[in-house]
Every structure is written in C-alpha cells, then in structure tokens.
Amino acid sequence: METIDVDYGRLRRYDTTKPPLKQRKFFTAVLRALCSIALTGQEYRIEKINMEGITPPYILLSNHMYFVDFELNSIATWPHSVNNIATIDGYYRRPILMEWLGCLCKRKFTTDMTLLRSVKKVLREYGDILCMYPEARYSPVGTTAILPDSLGKLVKAQEVPVVVLLHHGNYLHSPFWNYRKPRKVPLYSTMTQVLTAQEVREKSAQEIGEIIRKVMEYDEYRWQEEQGLHITEPFRAEGFHKVLYQCPHCLMESRMEGKGTILRCAACGREWEMDELGRLHAKEGETEFSHIPDWFEWERSQVRQQLEAGTYHFEDEVDVWSLPHAWRFQHLGKAKLTHDMEQGFVVEGTYNGKLYHIHRPPLGMYGVHIEYDYCYLRPEDCIDISTSNDSLYCYPVKQNVVTKLSFATEELYKMKMAERKRRRNAERPSYTGDKRP
Ligand SMILES: [Zn+2]
Fold first, then answer.
1. For residue 247, how far is its CA from the centre of ligand 1 (angstroms)?
2. CATH classification of 25-227, choosing from 3.90.180.10, 3.40.50.300, 3.30.310.10, 3.40.1130.10?
3. pTM assigned to the model
4. In what order do the strands lie in the sheet with 271-274?
5. For 198-216, what is each residue's pLDDT tens digit?
6. CA of 236 to the centre of ligand 1 (A)
7. Cys staple from 295: which of 207, 289, 391, 406, with CB 3.0 to 4.6 Å?
8. How far is the CA of 79 from the centre of ligand 1 (A)?
C-alpha cells in the first residue's frame, strides 16, 4: 500500500535534516537561570553517582515523565551545553529558538537516517552533551516505556560515555493523564555514568542496549511506597481511566471513570479507591490489582490475546490536524483511521479536494505517540501518526481508546518481529544434511 502525502500546495515542510547548531554559552546560562526560576518552591534533589572527572562529550539518556525533566536536566548538566533531541511539536511556534538552542528535530516513531549524522556532529565536532529521551513520550503509568532496539547501535557508534538521568517523583507530581493539576511531591533524580567510553568500545551494541534497558527501569508506584510518600490530594484518581481503561471484573473496555479518589466501571458498577500511597482497593470483594502498573500490564496482555486470536481491528472517524511545518497546525478535517494486523495504521482523507493516504506498516512502528490532553490543540485524547515529513494528530470519535492503540502497536510490532525472525531461521540453508545422493 503506497503512501500518498497530503498535498499542501506551496507550503514548505520543516526540514528535519538540518544539522544542529552549537549551543552558545549565553543560551546555556539563560536556560539554566530560567529552569531554576521555574523550579522555585519545588523541593528537588539531584544526586551524582560515578560522575567524578567526567566531561563532555557524552550521551545523556533521561526518562520522561513531564516537562520538569527538561528543567532538572538543565540544572544537572550545568555549566555544560546540551543539545536535545526534540520532536516537531516541541518546535511549534518557536522553530528558530529551538534551532538556536541546538536541538535536533525528529518526528516521533519514524526512522531518520540523518539523525546519526547530527548526533555525531554534536559529540565529535562540538564536544557537547547529547541528550535524548529514548522513551520518546511521557510515561503513561510511571513505569519505563518501550525503548527502541536501535539505541544500543546508536550509542556503540559514538564511542563516548553514557550517563543516565533517572527522575523520580515527576510522574506522581504531574501524571500524564492529569498534568494540569500537580500534586505536592518532592522530586529526586540520580545522574549516573553507566558506561565509560572504554566500555562502549569493548561491548557489543546488544550488550550496551541491555545495560541501558536495565538501568532505565523504574516504577514510580513502587518508589512511592518505598518512600512512604503520601499523596493526599482529593483528586488523585481524576482522569485515571485514560490509562486504566478496561475493567478487570467485567472486561468491558472504555467505560471506566476516574473521579476524586475513585475509579469506577460504568458498565458493571464496580469501584476501586486509590489510597494515599498509590495503591488500589476494591470497594467490595477481592482487589484484582493493588499495584497500578500490574493492571496496566494486564490490559496489554488482553490486547496481545486479541492479536494472537486474530480478532483485533480498530477503525473510526477522526478529526485530523497536521504539522508539516512548525509554525502552525493545518486542519485537515475528517478522515478515516484504521489499525489492523496486516496494514498497521492507515489514515485516509482529502485535503483541498485531493486524496491523501498515510500508511505505516506494523514493522515500521515499535510504538506510537498518544496524548490524553494535548496542550497544543484540543484537550482531548489523540494519536499522532507521523511520516518522515509530516505528523497527523488524529482525534477519534470513540472515547478512551488511545491507550489500547498504543498497546496494540507495541505488541503487533513484537509479534511481527518474532514472525520475521522465525521465517529467516527457517529459510536459512541447513548444512547438517547428508550430501550423498
Ligand atoms: Zn466492569
């Protein structure tokens, strides 16, 4: 199935292949000052581990829970300049500023061949810090999101040290599903050199990938419990149904409601209360999942079962906005979004009387970018289907479906990868057979 890009006429698309600029010291200082101001009144601590004597260039990997991660990273790396990999919507209304800050532009969950060249420029030519958020989005439930397999290869090719900045508390402070109502939570980050340049040279890309995966593991609800951190805000479960969208009692999807401290299934009426330590308790009978990430992973397993049984299919009408350039969103209007096991994502619509057809096959996307309350457009759920030169932000008519789409993308990719591996192994010629006629 061929992709037919949206025809914008004379409108020029943003060139994501532009090489990054070197960040000037003046900007580094201004950023540092602004980040300190933004964090005024917020309790935070940054602990540095195994960081003695390390100087740029190095690769900085950070987990991603909310914008405050960026502010803490700027403080932790001071006085050194940092070039961040940012996505196109981060450039919205401010592409020139982002360029001056030395950012590397990327569209989410697309393969970008020029990125490696830009990364090399930052590390080798500028000798600065390259910062990336390899989860590529805010964590939906305070646990590590899926990391790309290519990360080990990218690091291996650079032969510089790897530092991991792991933040705690940021998700609990402003959860992705209700970030507009922050809670009182202290923030704690560790900045650790996890691989020296020598170790990067000696280890294989796969070993490097595994080490990074291990050190980037986090679970904010476990951390909350270990710290005995009480979150007393009476709205602590508000919006939680965006993530916990399926009822473990009656199995109904998209009928959950999170209000106050209560999560409720509108289909069967079952209720769970979220306590001050972030645990769930069923109002009646046995609690299915007390630890929130367990519920989340159970939902993933439900989607996986549908995929394995071949019953998974999604289609809906969507309202589409796109971002070919960074200055403004284009309203493309109504379109049809399909996600299935054969074709992956397909968005079909017309713009200015001309058909467009965006196709992203299952093996082309290991994950997908979803939003619950997209700050740049409408404060509702949306899903971003990007290609190398455009990003389509699709608002489905069906409610509370985007988390499932995200699971389906990840699980479908894993299944197709395993299938491909099996097929390749089967096709490999056997040398053990008897060659005599
Ligand atoms: Zn139910």
1. 5
2. 3.40.1130.10
3. 0.94
4. 256-259, 262-265, 271-274, 280-282
5. 999 999 999 999 999 999 9
6. 21
7. 289
8. 53
